[in-house]
């Protein structure tokens, strides 16, 4: 049995140096040592915790390495920890002696006798000898362990051997003896040595170790430095030793580089820096410094006044509060409040924080008589100092800076996050004033996220001044689009010319044009487009919407003649009425080239050529040579061989055809019989523009993206189990809310609605997927629907019309009766706009472990054929009730409910 003690002394400097050298030679599992540190030729020092360059943030054993390195139980070499190096038996024993706090019993005599067959390096002899003396090692079994390669000390420590040493170091040998006859639940239970099985059972019961893949313990497997650090760190929960450089107390002061800890009646200060690691008792994931809270209980491990490891052991704030009505401040820093008709006094000092009802700091003199206040005092010392005085209700008059969190124009209220990070709620009235750079704003122009200066008078907003721009809209006429497409110049009504930079991919909206470009805008000094321009907070143009165009438009006009010298183009409209326009270098030209020029289009302007033209008085603003018409088929006269279509602009066209080619996606032998009344088509004209040459049937198909070749713009998709490929190089791409996106934004696993002109993709839009919990089911025959709350907390109702589908995860059809509140579903809309509801699989399991590298959850099998491995989605919602959890906070044997989408976990609900 290991004797426990409350304090220990460190070994001599010579012994520590020797151990350091031995502990560092881990990469090969064996090492040759000289008689003294001076002859090794190596400069070895203990690396400061947090400075191990080979232990990356998020590493699975990061917490345990931080902790034991801060305690001096494990060491590093020149900034490296080598977490994946295997540990030898003599090295493991050294760590066990330190863990058990037995250094003060070490002997420096390297001539000490060891049991037969136990051969170790001279530097480790004192540790191994002490381990035998303290019954951490069994002389009989260790002497009998022969037939293995290498000396006893340089052999790689096996998992079952380490387990025995660790359990003995905890003084639990008697429990191991009692559990020796009990079989473990591991599939390789028979491979665990009979003499070690009891120790394995105790270690499993204490949660010190788990199995490996395939529900195996792997008893003869080697142990890495990271694994051994984890074993010893977890075992400290059962170790009552107090290490000299560890202290547990209450945080009384906290700044970016300093922590004050109240311990046993006095305050000790620790320096903090980038190498300090912050953790919680119940999680193995590092937390941010900002998650530390004053007046909570923590354990600090450090060297001198430098904190290497900080662990929150109890997040409960150690304060007691008294509520009452503020009466007055008296000399001597005394605050008086009335509670239950009794006056109480509280002494405060410079360390006391005074807050208003929104959590913002105020001066004590700002508290108005009659205000309801809460006085909080610490409970961990006899002084019971007043640490916080907060106004709960009362008159507030203040100025401050912060960030707008939300604005509700209906209730005339808003929420501000002040510079201290606290939320404040206020209302406004007709006398409130809002501005930006001396320009008066309306409340509707205030945007969440804006930084502000604000003034409060009598609890009401007096003024808000924006310190940065807000999104806003202005109207005017378009004067010029910059040659490089980076600026626009416009003129406000009755104002001067203004120039604005364009944001990346500004949205263009022009009625009658399905996917307008910047080049579709008409800019002119006297008759440019009347537009509404949206500016972002950086005063960049994000949207241009054409409200009105002053020019006249003629579609389907025929060329009568063109004079190159005068640039006069004579045309005849559809009503046989002639008119003349003049072309110039500002005329927008569209014909079959990516780089149109006036000289290039002139050869096409032959008698009878059909064009679309827009003009102001007699100056042509745009000229387009017609190659095809888009529209909806309204009539097909097979006898006269004529087809009637209505264009998006409402124009009716009757076009003859002879033997047109027909293209339709997914049909290799499409014919004229596939063109129906109501079909959306693109009619490609012949060379003389007087008849239909080919008919491109327009269709929208929904696919799942399988793969993307970004170099060739080729996409591989899947629909109904069939895989196909096509190109997106000429398609307009949009996201799930209609915003323009790049090809690189399209990824495998997304759902796309692809619109085809014939067999060519003309547009593709990402389909919105809503995943979450059904909160209500309306099964009424008139308007059945479900309401779904997604994992971000947003609620949306989906109508389930006759075209809607309800399926399970395997694709089998379900009915509305299969849906109930509490079901987890994924909802999308198909290419026709009908809702598709997929009910997710659910399974209740017992948690085992998490592989952070593979992002996989292991659960314990109930039956031998059960699945015990599930992939975890990057955005999985992990929670217990309304509390959001991290995957690392899950403990072995926790009962968890898994919700699966295509076999991948999208939600974990801890029971």
TrEMBL record:
Keyword Cytoplasm applies: no
Pfam hit, one: SLH
Coiled-coil positions: none
Keyword Plastid included in the entry's annotation: no
Signal peptide span: 1-34
Occurrences of domain SLH (ranges): 48-110, 183-246
InterPro entries: SLH_dom (IPR001119)
The protein, known as: SLH domain-containing protein
Taxonomic source organism: Paenibacillus favisporus
